[in-house]
Design brief:
The structure holds 2 protein chains of 2 kinds. Chain A is of the alpha/beta class. Chain A has 9 helices and 12 strands. Chain A has 2 domains: 231 residues, Rossmann fold (3-Layer(aba) Sandwich), CATH 3.40.50.300; 48 residues, Alpha-Beta Plaits (2-Layer Sandwich). In chain A, the strands form 2 sheets. In chain A, strands 1, 2, 3, 4, 7, 8, 9, 10, 11 and 12 form a 10-stranded mixed β-sheet that branches. Chain A has a two-stranded antiparallel sheet with strand order 5-6. Helix content of chain A is 36%, strand content 26%. The N and C termini of chain A lie close together (11 Å). In chain A, helix 4 packs parallel to helix 5. Chain B is an alpha/beta fold. Chain B folds into 2 domains: 232 residues, Rossmann fold, CATH 3.40.50.300; 59 residues, 2-Layer Sandwich (Alpha-Beta Plaits), CATH 3.30.70. In chain B, the strands form 3 sheets. In chain B, strands 3-8-9-2-10-1-11-12-13 form a 9-stranded mixed β-sheet, with helices on both faces. A two-stranded antiparallel sheet of chain B has the order 4-7. A two-stranded antiparallel sheet of chain B has the order 5-6. In chain B, a hairpin with a 5-residue loop joins strand 5 and strand 6. In chain B, helix 5 runs parallel beside helix 6. Classes of the chains: A alpha/beta, B alpha/beta. Chains A and B meet through helix 3, helix 4, helix 5, helix 6 and helix 8 of A and helix 4, helix 6, helix 7 and helix 9 of B.
Chain lengths: 299, 300
């Protein structure tokens, strides 16, 4: 039974990537060949930076379909304009003008259905690339990169997830920051979501927004407090009062921040950070085994 | 006399999240004169936590439409699922079709093609934007429902209103605290801006993300300025970023050292400059703002 974990947070820079790559590295060693990491932050993908040893295959291009109006067939009836919910089509019958504004188009296909004159054709437009690779230790690592200037980040995430689904029984999704549609696309099918937060006022405010979202989606989640010691205890108390699972706390370490900066997260980890990580990673490892066990015993 | 032709809109961005956009915006807010402020991070807004706005106007923002299936009319033909390009239509365990509201893009195609008229859609009205007074001037900001897909449009709405206010009341600056990333909300926060200020942290990820952001901004043909924040977390990477900025003709306004005073100020709901006006950080932030203003005025 596959298990999917998503790492998310409302605020950026709380440590999603740091945690996702550590979890991936740990699980791919303890469960060789069974784990994949999928970098769903397609606007600013960073996971690969921490695995210089990874071997990547050729980039795969991802396209979306953008409609084009064939003016030799168009009767300027404006039915497509009426169907388009995103105001992406302009048709002015008096001057025989009909055009699609691709930057507003969501590629939903409604205009094609609307057109009775077979005047609309769809042309592919590149929105980004998918890279797939693997570590010498066997873990699979993939990610998407949104083409600069494209605003189709949500579609890019969906296409990435489709492309890598089923490649490994255990999947870790590293989500983009925020609480809007790209985040939903990244976490929608996860069995467990880990919200990474920091004990600062900004961290706590944005965590509450993420919790609202996950409660609305009825998703199981827990919270990881990163950079613990940097702010106040308020976050810790909030989780207790709300009965929200605390996955663990990782202390703030200036030395570890410097290591992250240079792209090295795994060698010479400061002792207090390593200790906190190992406890959390063990716990998650056990939870995944238990999930597998539960599904075996159901059979 | 109102000289709005000289009004300057500055958008603060970073690509990577958590580099210090909001802390820098709040610091500039506490020293900029004749300025109005915008929170362009409608997904996870934080600027109000420092600016403590007193809301004066509340406006609804029509969000995207969400479709739903009336189970009494639905014949389970599945046509809607075949047409939906957003994989938002699913079958429950008893085979009945339903639409997942947060996956729904709001295109209404399912509603139009349903042969028995079982699908209808409603516009989400749970998003709002506000005009507020703060101790530093006016703030235009927003509250978006979680999972909403119209964040770019909401950013545009907030910024358009700030611009109207600035023109009407003769402000010199619009300072927008932007969203992370380089997708639709970031694009919406750059469009029409006079300059972008990039807050870069000296990390491999921070640099990688800043390079992507700079490439996006170049497409808009507006000047890019930068601040390296927490530069002493890794001076080697900071030096690499500096040489990249130099070779890309991006003006470096200042380098801010790592200091926990930023978090302490945040806890006290103050900008760094208010909290510790005599600190090195406040000095660097003030001089960065002065440099930015003079660059913008000379560049006019």
């Amino acid at each position: 039974m596959p298990f999917k974990i998503a790492i998310a947070s409302g605020k950026g820079g709380t440590g999603k990537t740091t945690f996702a790559v550590n979890l991936f590295r740990y699980l791919s060693q303890s469960m060789p060949g069974k784990v994949q990491l999928v970098d769903c932050d397609v606007e600013e993908p960073n996971d690969h930076i921490f695995f210089p040893e990874a071997q990547f295959e050729k980039l795969e291009k991802v396209y979306r379909l953008v409609p084009e109006i064939d003016q030799s067939k168009c009767t300027y009836c404006r039915k497509c304009v009426e169907y388009c919910e995103f105001n992406a089509i302009v048709v002015i019958p008096t001057v025989r003008f009909a055009e699609v504004n691709s930057s507003l188009c969501h590629s939903c296909g409604a205009c094609i259905v609307a057109c009775e004159d077979d005047a609309i054709n769809e042309k592919p437009e590149e929105i980004g690339t998918i890279r797939r690779g693997f570590l010498p230790s066997g873990g699979r690592i993939s990610g998407g990169t949104l083409k600069i200037g494209s605003s189709m980040q949500t579609m890019m995430i969906r296409e990435l997830k489709k492309a890598v689904s089923g490649e490994a029984p255990i999947t870790i999704f590293d989500a983009p920051p925020g609480t809007s549609c790209p985040v939903v696309a990244a976490i929608a099918d996860a069995d467990l979501i880990i919200l990474v937060s920091e004990p600062t006022p900004f961290g706590m405010y944005d965590l509450k927004l993420s919790i609202d979202l996950l409660r609305e989606l009825r998703k199981p989640f827990g919270v990881l407090i990163n950079k613990s010691g940097l702010g106040t205890d308020e976050l810790h108390n909030y989780l207790l009062n709300q009965g929200i699972e605390l996955i663990g706390s990782i202390p703030f370490s200036r030395a570890y921040a410097g290591m992250y900066a240079s792209g090295n997260l795994f060698n010479d980890i400061p002792e207090e950070v390593a200790f906190a990580f190992s406890e959390i990673l063990h716990k998650l490892h056990d939870r995944i085994l238990q999930h597998e066990g539960d599904h075996h015993s159901e059979r | 006399m109102i000289e709005y032709y000289s009004m300057k809109e500055i958008t603060i961005l970073s690509g990577k999240g958590g580099t210090g956009k909001t802390s820098v915006t709040a610091a500039f807010a506490s020293i900029a004169e004749h300025a109005i402020f915008c929170d362009g991070d409608v997904d996870a807004p934080d600027l109000h936590l420092i600016l403590a706005p007193e809301i004066k106007e509340t406006h609804p923002f029509p969000g995207g439409r969400k479709a739903s299936i009336n189970p009494e009319l639905c014949t389970d033909c599945g046509l809607c699922r075949d047409y939906c390009r957003f994989d938002a239509i699913h079958q429950d365990i008893s085979g009945r079709y339903y639409i997942h509201p947060v996956q729904c893009e709001g295109c209404r195609l399912c509603e139009r093609i349903c042969p028995v008229g079982a699908i209808s859609s409603e516009q989400s009205m749970n998003n709002f934007w506000f005009v507020s007074d703060t101790r530093f001037g006016k703030l235009v900001h927003a509250n978006m429902q979680a999972g909403e897909e119209n964040s770019g449009k909401l950013v545009t709405t907030v910024r358009n209103h700030a611009r109207e206010l600035a023109k009407a009341e003769g402000y010199r600056f619009i300072i927008t605290d932007g969203p992370p990333g380089i997708g639709c909300p970031a694009i919406a926060s750059i469009t029409g801006s006079k300059a972008v200020l990039m807050i870069v942290e000296p990390t491999r990820s921070g640099m990688h993300d800043a390079i992507r952001l700079a490439e996006l901004v170049k497409g808009f043909n507006i000047p890019i300025f930068s601040i390296i924040n927490k530069y002493d977390v890794n001076e080697e990477v900071a030096a690499e970023i500096e040489s990249w900025l130099h070779s890309d003709n991006i003006i470096l306004l200042g380098k801010i050292p790592f200091n926990e005073v930023v978090v302490k100020a945040m806890i006290e709901k103050k900008s760094v400059i208010e909290f510790d006006p005599d600190s090195e950080l406040s000095y660097i932030l003030r001089s960065s703002w002065t440099k930015l203003v003079s660059e913008l005025e000379n560049g006019q």
